Amino acid sequence: MVFSQSAILREEVEEAMSIQELIKKPLTSVPQRYIQLHNNEPSLLAGETFSHALPTINLKKLIHGEDIELELEKLTSACRDWGFFQLVEHGISSVVMKTLEDEVEGFFMLPMEEKMKYKVRPGDVEGYGTVIGSEDQKLDWGDRLFMKINPRSIRNPHLFPELPSSLRNILELYIEELQNLAMILMGLLGKTLKIEKRELEVFEDGIQNMRMTYYPPCPQPELVMGLSAHSDATGITILNQMNGVNGLQIKKDGVWIPVNVISEALVVNIGDIIEIMSNGAYKSVEHRATVNSEKERISVAMFFLPKFQSEIGPAVSLTNPEHPPLFKRIVVEEYIKDYFTHNKLNGKSYLEHMRITDDEKFTNASI
Ligand SMILES: O=C(O)CCC(=O)C(=O)O
Ligand SMILES: [Fe+2]
């Protein structure tokens, strides 16, 4: 009796942790906990066209092309007008991309007992499954593994080091390649913003986190959200929509628009920290992941932040009496701690919390 009760309990826990487990039973309607009313916001449907497509940036042309100034101009407007772009010719080989896709898919196909070894532990933000804050919290339609990756000393011993070795090996390679790519991009962003080079040094050997997500098909996709609307609390994020299934949407001028997958392209987006450092010249953009009724979607997002002990705030080279700082200065460690207690995934609310209010401007001016 005790055994069967605990078996039921385990099943319930596993269902809350994993949509893959939930949909093993025949399911014609979505359980209440997953229903999120998001359809009252205007959005473009997949077939509809938006007057401009998300910009595509060619990294090779940006570095070795014939007209680098023109490419830099394209990058500037992509960051300023969109906060998001597709990156092609990024230098990550097709073999690495394909191996990673197979290995990440392999992870989500592991039996539940295996994946539960990595489950989010009480009070933790890392691991497999959803961080459940309260009983009435709405749940997203996606199974995730979130891990801190760099510096190595912050790797959680029961997560990355314990992953199947073939997944770990390809991840090590991908993590390093993306770290190099992120630094190249950061340098280019600095150039377009005219931020002094040393102000971006905070990103060298900075913090790198990773979220792998498996979004199973859903019988009523219009009622759920794969990943709720949020902006990323990062410098930049590099997203790999690895199995070619659409689902990402970004909010542009108040309208949700779909980002179509371009084979082997990576999607780069500006996070809250670059919005702060650029003093609002580049803005982080709200985005979300939708799901569909036919095919699972798999993505890996890599997040790049400055070093723990560094301080972030509007770049000194961008602020002057005509352009006063719009955001507070804060040490990264503090920023991250506050983020996880204050916000989670909730629009751009955390960035707003960093904004210097009119009252504070007045107080500062009167000191
Ligand atoms: O899976 C996606 O398309 C979006 C992922 C994302 O935005 C995130 O992990 O922060
Ligand atoms: Fe995101």
TrEMBL record:
Coiled coil: none annotated. It holds the Pfam family DIOX_N. Keywords: Iron, Metal-binding, Oxidoreductase, Vitamin C. Residues 206-306 form the Fe2OG dioxygenase domain. GO terms for molecular function: L-ascorbic acid binding; metal ion binding; oxidoreductase activity. Belongs to the iron/ascorbate-dependent oxidoreductase family. PANTHER family: OXOGLUTARATE/IRON-DEPENDENT DIOXYGENASE. This is Fe2OG dioxygenase domain-containing protein. The gene is LOC100802619.
